[in-house]
């Protein structure tokens, strides 16, 4: 609270200033003012005259559509500064010019300045499509919202205008530097924005992830706690929200560390945005933070879809195992992007093509990108993706390009952030182009159980795949006679002679890709089929030859990766002591014959038990191509009889499973209870 002497001094100063203003001749009335040159400042022209203590501005804008125009003398080229600046806004409808404080980017964030004494308006007019206003002020800042003017030093001039009635968002804005004493004009410094910071934080985070991945993969291959232990134990029975419970139970400690690093990255980005924009309102800050969180998600979600063996080198895993991060990041992006869109829409027309805010974004481009990515997220819902996979896949292919293009056009920050992900994806895509040279002509065979057998002719390439690919590897296959565009992943099976790769693909639904292949093969029996092959891909989570025993649990066509493992063992059995125990359950006895040429006779070191769950009673047998009869049991395998510590006393045991979710879930649960390392073969891409 001011004391009496201070109050008297303040009143006296105000009176002296008022008296001085009345007695001092107006700069704008000087004869010299009219002969000063008019300088183009964007679409405006500005005429100035400086005296020892005052300056006069005349601002003109020729526009038949403009409803208001504004000029601000600012500490920087930013519209929003700390402390806040003000601007002179001329409202053509009211023919008035007033000072407004620039507190935010919305019209609500530009309130009328309470104290208008620092502005002396000399003339205003709006006629014949020309908006004009003339005002005078002191060189010394008349209020806390003004800046001091040094005629010899360039001053930041911010301009804007709007084609809709004030208050409204500007149609266009800009900034220049003008030496008010000499009239020398230069470009203003670009807006301070958070353009590259998010990209740098994301790059540092990924580099740290990659470094830890290399250490865990190559120096810490025996770190079971990191590479095998899961964060939460698996459940024995079906959980209410399987997409959450399964994801958590599959998350290994090493993967959880990656997630923690990502969360730290998001926090760091949020802090950096807050530091960069300290004066932003709560809603504006939330909009900026959510936008940059969405950008971080976009950066990282593109990486897992870049198929290639680089993931095996860096993280010791493969594409189909990290694709879950793509789905998770997609959900993060959707939430953050929705928040960003809603908060932005409160202050700006999201269909505007004008640059907006300190980030200089184009709202329309961001809106198109959001609609593109959001529609992709909706089609990625599990039921839709599995039921209409082709629609989901090709919609993703096309619309992702649209979304990325418009996201890049939306903001410089996006352009900087997406350089590395796009380079990684582009390089891996170039490597995948060689796929089109991996063409094979094979004579397929259709099996009665809606299964097609495709065996590639033996060649130097197939022999190389046998030698160099990982066990349980899979390939992406295209069959031009059926579809020029569709590529689908299938387990590659080493043939018993170890010279080539075979595939067994089964149709599960009418009209599906495999169903179309099956019908084509049936209709063109004996005719050669062209097969394009992209691969090999995939790496098991366990090294099977480091175990004394490996239990293989398969259901239906889930036998295919196990067959590959068995036939690899067939070639290496003299040097390998690992014992394999196969438990394979099918719906009909005839299904056992779909892979008879690849499985039988069983190699030494492999013990197999077969199950037929057809509702019948009593064990039976089926005759294979060699004339032998293969016995099978009725019903499902009782896994607690085969996955337990008493059966494998003091042995190092690994378990692999592929098949129906409940069968795999039970195998995983029992493996966890026995502290056996577990690998789940999945193709939920």
From TrEMBL:
Gene3D superfamilies linked to this entry: Nucleotide-binding domain of ferredoxin-NADP reductase (FNR) module
Protein name, per record: DOMON domain-containing protein
Keyword list, A-Z: Membrane, Oxidoreductase, Signal, Transmembrane, Transmembrane helix
Membrane association type: Multi-pass membrane protein
Pfam family, one: NAD_binding_6
Residues of the signal peptide: 1-21
Domain DOMON as annotated: residue spans: 40-162
Localisation: Membrane
PANTHER family per UniProt: FERRIC REDUCTION OXIDASE 6-RELATED, NADPH OXIDASE
Glycoprotein as UniProt keyword: no
């Amino acid at each position: 609270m001011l004391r009496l002497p201070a109050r008297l001094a303040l009143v006296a100063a105000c009176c002296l200033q008022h008296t001085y203003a009345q007695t001092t001749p107006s700069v704008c009335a000087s004869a010299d003012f009219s002969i000063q040159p008019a300088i183009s400042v964007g679409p405006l022209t500005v005429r100035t005259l400086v005296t020892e203590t005052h300056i006069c501005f005349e601002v003109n804008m020729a526009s038949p559509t403009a409803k208001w125009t504004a000029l601000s003398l600012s500490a920087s080229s930013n519209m929003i500064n700390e402390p806040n600046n003000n601007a002179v806004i001329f409202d053509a409808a009211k023919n008035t010019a007033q000072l407004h404080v620039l507190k935010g980017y919305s019209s609500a964030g530009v309130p009328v300045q309470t104290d208008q004494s620092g502005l002396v308006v000399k003339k205003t007019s709006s006629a014949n499509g020309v908006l004009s206003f003339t005002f005078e002020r002191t060189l010394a800042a008349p209020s806390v919202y003004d800046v001091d003017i040094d005629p010899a030093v360039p001053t930041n001039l911010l301009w804007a205008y709007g084609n809709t009635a004030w208050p409204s968002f500007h149609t266009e804005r800009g900034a220049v530097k003008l030496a008010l004493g000499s009239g020398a004009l230069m470009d203003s410094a670009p807006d301070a924005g958070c353009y590259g910071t998010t990209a740098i934080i994301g790059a540092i985070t990924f580099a740290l992830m990659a470094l830890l991945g290399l250490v865990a993969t190559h120096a810490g291959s025996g770190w079971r706690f990191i590479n095998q232990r899961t964060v939460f134990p698996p459940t024995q029975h079906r959980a209410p929200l399987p997409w959450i419970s399964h994801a958590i139970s599959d998350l290994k400690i090493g993967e959880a560390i990656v997630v923690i690093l990502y969360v730290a990255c998001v926090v760091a980005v949020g802090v950096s945005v807050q530091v960069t924009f300290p004066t932003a309102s709560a809603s504006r800050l939330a909009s900026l933070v959510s936008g940059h969180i969405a950008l971080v998600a976009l950066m990282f979600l593109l990486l897992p879809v870049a198929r290639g063996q680089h993931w095996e080198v860096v993280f010791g895993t493969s594409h189909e195992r990290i694709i879950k991060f793509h789905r998770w990041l997609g959900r993060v992006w959707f939430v953050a992007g929705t928040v960003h869109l809603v908060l932005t829409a409160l202050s700006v027309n999201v269909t505007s093509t004008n640059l907006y805010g300190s980030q200089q974004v184009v709202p329309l481009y961001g809106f198109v990108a959001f609609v593109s990515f959001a529609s992709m997220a909706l089609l990625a819902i599990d039921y839709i993706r599995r039921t209409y996979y082709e629609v989901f896949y090709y919609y993703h292919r096309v619309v992702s390009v649209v979304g990325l293009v418009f996201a890049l056009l939306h903001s410089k920050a996006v352009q900087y952030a997406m350089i590395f992900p796009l380079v990684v994806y582009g390089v891996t895509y170039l490597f995948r182009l060689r796929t089109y040279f991996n063409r094979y002509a094979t004579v397929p065979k259709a099996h009665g159980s809606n299964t097609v057998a495709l065996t590639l002719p033996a060649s130097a390439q197939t022999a190389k795949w046998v030698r160099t690919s990982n066990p349980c590897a899979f390939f992406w296959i295209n069959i031009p006679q059926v579809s020029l565009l569709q590529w689908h992943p299938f387990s590659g099976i080493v043939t018993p002679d170890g010279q080539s790769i075979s595939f067994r693909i089964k149709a599960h639904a009418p009209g599906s890709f495999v169903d179309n292949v099956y019908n084509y093969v049936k209709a063109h029996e004996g005719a050669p089929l062209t097969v394009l092959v992209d691969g090999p891909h995939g790496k098991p989570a366990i090294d099977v030859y480091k175990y004394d025993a490996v239990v293989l649990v398969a259901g239906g066509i889930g036998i295919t990766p196990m067959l590959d493992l068995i036939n690899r063992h067939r070639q290496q059995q003299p040097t390998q002591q690992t014992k394999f125990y196969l438990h394979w359950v099918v719906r009909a006895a005839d299904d056992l014959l779909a892979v008879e040429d690849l499985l039988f006779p069983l190699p030494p070191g492999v013990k197999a038990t077969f199950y037929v769950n057809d509702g019948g009673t009593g064990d039976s047998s089926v005759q294979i191509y060699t004339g032998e009869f293969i016995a099978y049991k009725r019903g499902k395998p009782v896994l607690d009889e085969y996955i337990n510590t008493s059966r494998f006393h003091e042995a190092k045991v690994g378990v692999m499973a592929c098949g129906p979710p409940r069968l795999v879930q039970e195998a995983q649960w029992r493996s966890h209870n026995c502290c056996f390392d577990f690998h789940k073969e999945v193709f939920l891409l």
